[in-house]
Specification:
Largest sheet: 3 strands, mixed
CATH architecture of the largest domain: Alpha Horseshoe
Number of helices: 20
Number of strands: 13
Number of domains: 3
CATH topology of the largest domain: Serine Threonine Protein Phosphatase 5, Tetratricopeptide repeat
Strand order of the largest sheet: 7-10-11
Amino acid sequence: MKSFKNFKYIFLLVGIASFVSCEDYLEEEFFSDVTAETFIAEDNADQLIVGIYEDLRDIYKQYDINFSGTDIYSVQTQVEEFNSFNDYFGLSSDNGSTVDYWRVNYNLIADANIAINRFQNDIAWSDSNLGARDYGIAQAQALRALAFYNLVQHYGGLVLELEETTSIRSDYSRSSEEQTFDQIISDLEAAIPNLLDAPETGRFSRRAAQHLLADVYLTRGYKSFGDTSDFSTAASLAEQAIGTYDLRSQSYAELFDYDNQVNDEILFAVQFGSGGNDNDRSNSKHGLLMNAIENYAGIGRNSVYGARSTSLMPTPYFYGLFAANDTRDDVTLHRVLFAAEEVTFSSGEGQPEDPIAVGDTVIYYPKTALDATELADKLNRYWVYQPDQYLFGVPDNIPGAVYQYSANINRINFPIFKKFDDVGIDGAGNGSRDTYVFRIAETHLIAAEAHLAAGNSSGGLQHLNVVRERATGETTFYTDLTLDNILDERALELSGEENRWAVLKRTGKLQERLNLHNPQNADHGAFDSSIHLLRPIPANELLLSDGSLEQNPGY
């Protein structure tokens, strides 16, 4: 497994994050008795680049802002209850998620600016190491572009700070959204020629940059300032990133096998690991879409499932997308949870008791509804929640059953996610599984959407169907290429991975699908497209800018 850890040296305003790892992965070097003037040289300059990769860990643990308030993710509350992200009206400039997402992405941008400046201006490179210089700069440019792209999708025009910060300033102002896209494209186009096709595991490859640039061009193509060729450019870049890789060469189950995290479908991943220091084991994604399972008798707080790390849950619409033959269902979801400890369950005083042994079924979520006879039988041995019972509520008790619904203190019960299961976890933390950022299944879906927008439906259908074929074995499941088909397939294939909010926004489908498929927002109807297609600029940033930084409209 991979691992790296953070160790920062502060000289003046320079923070250098670095790593330690197993053989063949990003490694940290330890230095002592050095000064700011002598520390950075061509033989250790790569530590500046490695430090930028470490920043990605914080970025890709920001789940709420990318998932909630969409068609396939909701929050674990009553349908009638208001929630800031799900209902938008409460999404303010001092909301923790909006503040944190801005902060962690700009942290990476600052570290990338440091690296680019030092590589270009401070380090005396020998002729034999000029390739290493250019490769380091290319990685910093690509990662900076990724952070800017994360931000522009949520906030619109950004502060395009491209120089290392060496003094305290308050005169920051925002560039336009068009200028921001231009900068992202410029960074990626400059980086691609100097990136490697097959770099060391954990580093940004040329194909990863092509995937990202395809996504950027695809998104820009929908904008008023987009170019007429953006969609065809996106399709071409996506197909270059796919290359000769056959998506059907491994199954969805193999893709998410913990022992197969370094595989040819993964174009880029944020690395964690079971070795090194605590930060290596800091992934929380195993608890991303989970309810309070520790309240179920027999599971407790020390189960292999861990504990929830967010208040998110899938919507009923998401669960209903899985066809009977879709193998992703079994990989994505735990439809059965098993006991980790011996206990005796009873629905109450004087009620029948059920002894639970380690390994016994504790709760079952059937994919299709059970009939009354089968349901009553199973409720004598464990909880059963039918597909229409995942939202807040208490189903009617089944007379005579050992497991009475009124005895379950959890009012929200749904199949938790399985695809991010981890090892060595402790509650919501200590995860060591890598987080996939770009993989070729998504590249196919980008190509499908780009071809659709460019008017080439037949070309797009091929990409959409190859994703479906891996999951179901059907080679021509889709005969019509539509945005809704692409979005449904993205939901199934990339659940818990893609920036769902940004994808729906890009396609112009956010409000429509939110109102159709998210029961909480449909109940409240609070989405306002004149405001909520952008997030608010964090209030603390506005204060620090001394009035030069403008807030988005409506906030």
